[in-house]
Write a structure and sequence with these properties.
It contains 7 helices and 7 strands; from the N terminus they run αααβαββαβαβαββ. With 205 residues, it is of the alpha/beta class. It has a single domain, classed as Vaccinia Virus protein VP39 (Rossmann fold, 3-Layer(aba) Sandwich). The longest helix is centred in the C-terminal third of the chain and has 22 residues. The chain is globular and about 40 Å long. The relative contact order is 0.13.
Length: 205
């Protein structure tokens, strides 16, 4: 009975969520598409002929935005979860920290990458401190990948949650990128501790 009540409350909130409803109207697979659209409007980083990697891509909201915004680029989406096909997007199922996946990325692009995106978050456990820390670890892993493969003026954009690991992430970003901005999109739920870190320009150490 309690589970049914939670499900009904969740559905009720979703129906009131304008971004959730708008995603259905515009054909996006998730409301998170509007977060990327908003951040691109602010930072203006999605451009023609770019090479882009979308980490944790399923169900595909961000990959849909990329395929619409960049008409002549190369896109590589990765997730441990399955994702239905999106035109012009090369998807592979796997763990982006796996060296075999890294080899597939380098083979596919055969050059440095312009943008690495990560909207990954761990499955929630109910322990907010633990969840934010583990999601932060994923952000660090994504940043490590970005540092290895981004072009000199490349962009790294990742989700994280405010918590104990935040300062470690920010310190690492400032050490490796010329520009670092912490940003919370308006389309992100107010009650969520979710924020994004936007990094541009690799500092070759």
């Amino acid at each position: 009975m309690k589970k049914n009540k939670i499900s009904k409350d969740w559905l009720r909130k979703q129906k009131k969520d304008k971004f959730f409803n708008q995603s259905k109207i515009e054909g996006y697979r998730s409301r998170s598409a509007f977060k990327l659209l908003e951040m691109n409007k602010k930072f203006n980083f999605l451009k023609e002929n770019q090479a882009v990697i979308d980490l944790g891509s399923s169900p595909g909201g961000w990959s849909q935005v990329i395929s619409k915004k960049i008409k002549k680029g190369k896109f590589f989406s990765i997730d441990i979860k399955p994702m239905e096909k999106i035109n012009n997007v090369h998807y592979i199922k796997g763990d982006f920290t796996d060296e075999k996946i890294f080899e597939k990325i380098t083979t596919y692009f055969n050059k440095t990458i312009d943008i690495v995106l990560s909207d990954i978050a761990v499955n929630t456990t109910g322990n907010k401190s633990l969840d934010s820390y583990r999601t932060g670890e994923l952000c660090i892993n994504a940043m490590d990948l970005a540092i290895r493969i981004l072009s000199t003026n490349g962009v790294f954009l990742s989700k994280l949650f405010m918590g104990s690991i935040f300062e470690q992430i920010k310190k690492k970003a400032n050490k490796n990128f010329k520009k670092v901005v912490i940003y919370k999109p308006l389309s992100s739920k107010k009650e969520s501790k979710e924020i994004y870190i936007f990094c541009k320009g690799i500092l070759r150490i």
